[in-house]
Protein: Probable molybdenum cofactor guanylyltransferase
Organism: Drancourtella massiliensis
Amino acid sequence: MSKQRTDLAGYILAGGRGKRMGGRQKLYLRHQGKYLALWAMETLRSLENFYISVAEIPNETVGSAKWITDLYEEAGPLGGILSGLLLCPQEALFVVPCDTFGLDEEMAEMMLREYERSGRPVFYRTEKGPEPFPGIYTKAMIPVMERQRTAGNYRMKSLFETEEAKEYTFLDGTKQLKKLVNLNTEQEYRRLQRRNDGRENSDSE
C-alpha cells in the first residue's frame, strides 16, 4: 500500500451493547485468535492513527488505537461517528463497525484513493442504495449529522437522503460489499468461526 496517510484516521465503531450477541462485548470478538478490530486495522495499515468509539472505556487496549467516548447516549452509530468527527484532529475518518468482518485492501484502497482525489465523503452503493459502512466521513458532514441527531433521527441511511449527499462520492459496491460479514448474532459469529476448517473455533472471546 502507499505511504502513511495522516489526514484521515481509522475509526472502529464499538459502542453497541451486543444485545443479540448475548451481551458479549463485540469489541473483543476474535477470529483466528485475533480481535476483529485488529483485522480491520491491519487492512488499513496505511493510516497513521486509529480510534475506537466506545460507550465506556474498557480495561484492555486494542493495538495502537486510542479511545473515543461517545458524546451522545442512545444515538447509535450516528452519535459515535459524530463524536469522532468532533473530537479527532484528522479531517476524515475511515469508519468500520467492530462487528463487520471481511474488509480487504482492494476495498479500502478504492475508497482511500477516491478520498485523496476528491476530498469528499466516500461510500459504496449497491442496487439497494448507498451503504453507510465502510465509509469515509469528513468534518464537512458535522452540520448535517448534528441536525439529524437533534431531530432524533439516528437512521444512518437518512444521511444519503439530504441535499448534502449530492456532494458525496458513491462507488459501485455490488461486488465489494459481498465480501463483508456482519456479525449481529451469536449464530453469525459461530458461522464465521467455522469458515476456515469446517469446525467451530474453540476461542470463545
Notes: The helical segments are 36-43, 76-87, 105-118, 142-150, 186-194.
